[in-house]
Design brief:
- By secondary structure, this protein is α+β, with helices and mostly antiparallel strands.
- It has 2 domains: 5-45, Orthogonal Bundle (Arc Repressor Mutant, subunit A); 58-135, Alpha-Beta Plaits (2-Layer Sandwich), CATH 3.30.70.
- Helix content is 35%, strand content 20%.
- The chain has a 4-stranded antiparallel sheet.
- GO terms for molecular function: sequence-specific DNA binding.
- Keywords: DNA-binding, Transcription, Transcription regulation.
- Pfam families: AsnC_trans_reg (PF01037), HTH_AsnC-type (PF13404).
- Residues 3-64 form the HTH asnC-type domain.
Length: 147
């Protein structure tokens, strides 16, 4: 599905505030509610919009540690490893990347011992050759919305 400027305007507004009703969005963008609803439904059907969620402050929920972990895999099992990593609740992102590292994950933890246990558990996943863990000291920006 190709997005036109109207679709992009709808998406940008939803990324800023997904709680906007179709009516509110239509008023804000100067178009009909039916048009907004039909375009949103089309983008949902095309999996451009995959859901709606709240943006939370992880630190206020107790997740004060963010780790960026590089994973080097054996053989051709990168996809299998990434699928396994995606199942962990505290893993926020799994990225198949270029370079000397095969995969990067971003994960959040409440305590150091939780991070330690997680990293040690990575070693027992089949075909994980090595990991390199980076602990985030400060977060200057963390927002995956492109609005």
């Amino acid at each position: 599905m190709n997005l036109d400027k109207t679709d992009e305007r709808i998406l940008k507004n939803l990324m800023v505030d997904a709680r906007l009703s179709a009516r509110q969005l239509a008023l804000k963008l100067g178009m009909s509610t039916v048009t907004v609803l039909s375009r949103i439904k089309k983008m949902e059907k095309a999996n451009i919009i995959n859901g709606y969620s709240a943006i939370v402050d992880h630190e206020k929920l107790g997740y004060s540690l963010t780790a960026i972990i590089e994973i080097i895999a054996n053989n051709d099992k990168v996809v299998d490893i990434e699928e396994e990593l995606s199942k962990f609740e505290n893993v926020c992102g799994v990225y198949d990347i270029t370079g000397s590292t095969d995969t990067i994950i971003i994960a959040k933890f409440k305590e150091r011992n939780e991070l330690s246990k997680f990293v040690k558990g990575l070693a027992v996943i089949p075909n994980v050759e090595n990991t390199i863990t980076h602990v985030v000291l400060n977060t200057a920006k963390e927002d995956f919305r492109l609005a």
